[in-house]
Design brief:
- The chain is built from 3 helices and no strands.
- The protein is an all-alpha fold.
- The chain has one domain (2-59).
- 19% of the residues are buried.
Length: 69
């Protein structure tokens, strides 16, 4: 639950964005089948940009950040 609480903060949101960008850059830089890593990187990037946490439903917490748009 602490992870979900952290991911719903501004710092957690920024972490998701940075992680997503890193995965995209690494996947594109390595190439071949690693491009799939870039596609996976779109998930945390999108979650961070739009302010939702994919782990929240698992822990029955609100999935959208409130007041942090």
């Amino acid at each position: 639950m602490k992870l979900v609480n952290f991911m719903q903060t501004k710092a957690g949101r920024m972490l998701r964005v940075v992680l997503g960008i890193a995965l995209i850059v690494a996947g594109l830089a390595i190439g071949n089948y690693w491009v799939l890593l870039a596609l996976v990187g779109l998930v945390p990037l999108t979650a961070g940009v739009f302010g939702f946490c994919l782990l929240s439903p698992v822990f029955h917490a609100p999935s959208k950040l409130h007041g942090h748009s």
